[in-house]
Design goal:
Structural class: alpha+beta
Membrane topology: Single-pass membrane protein
Main location: membrane
Number of helices: 5
Helix content: 55-70%
Shape: rod-shaped
Function: Controls the rotational direction of flagella during chemotaxis.
Family: Belongs to the FliL family.
Protein name: Flagellar protein FliL
Distance between the termini: 133 Å
């Protein structure tokens, strides 16, 4: 009988050890499951915000306009004026655009754009290009022409050419 009494506490100790071990395993599994689920939702939320931010950045214009240099400063690019008797020498021509898509399109259509600018100047006289209002009108015509060529008209016009920087060095006689 004394053996039976001694065995009873040992069996209780043996039973309590597996219960402690099972409890410890359950706690660890639950903690891992909770941390895994939490990590999944955090990654899902952050990645959806990243996708949304890239979509909005490509759709809307950036706060700092991108600059496309059509004619580098010092290029001295001659263009004929109306009548063929005068030549305007363009020192620099830069376009500020509102999106990278517009910048890439301008680089793709560079020759067509330069030809459109030549056509604008072919319809100008020396007197029109000698006044500030004439130069501003020419800049607006360049903006409209370039936006039409690259396909940024209507609602997308704000993503196209925003500003033209034009430096006319001189206007001389062609003869």
């Amino acid at each position: 009988m004394p053996d039976e009494i001694d065995n009873a506490p040992e069996t209780k100790k043996k039973k309590s050890q597996p219960n402690f071990l099972m409890t410890l395993i359950i706690v660890i599994v639950v903690a891992l499951a909770i941390s895994g689920i939490t990590s999944f939702f955090i990654v899902k939320v952050l990645s959806s915000n990243l996708v949304e931010s890239t979509k909005t950045s490509s759709q809307y214009s950036s706060k700092i306009p991108l600059r496309v240099i059509l004619l580098q400063e010092g290029a001295r690019y001659p263009v004929m004026l109306k009548g063929g008797y005068d030549v305007a020498v363009i020192d620099s021509l830069q376009l500020d655009v509102g999106s990278t898509e517009a910048r890439d399109a301008i680089n793709a259509y560079r020759l067509e754009i330069l030809e459109a600018i030549r056509m604008i100047f072919l319809n100008k006289t020396r007197n029109e290009l000698s006044t500030p209002s004439g130069i501003e009108l020419t800049k607006k015509q360049i903006i409209n022409s370039v936006n039409e060529i690259i396909g940024f008209t209507g609602e997308r016009e704000q993503l196209g050419v925003i500003k033209v920087t034009l430096i006319i060095m001189t206007i001389t006689n062609a003869t």
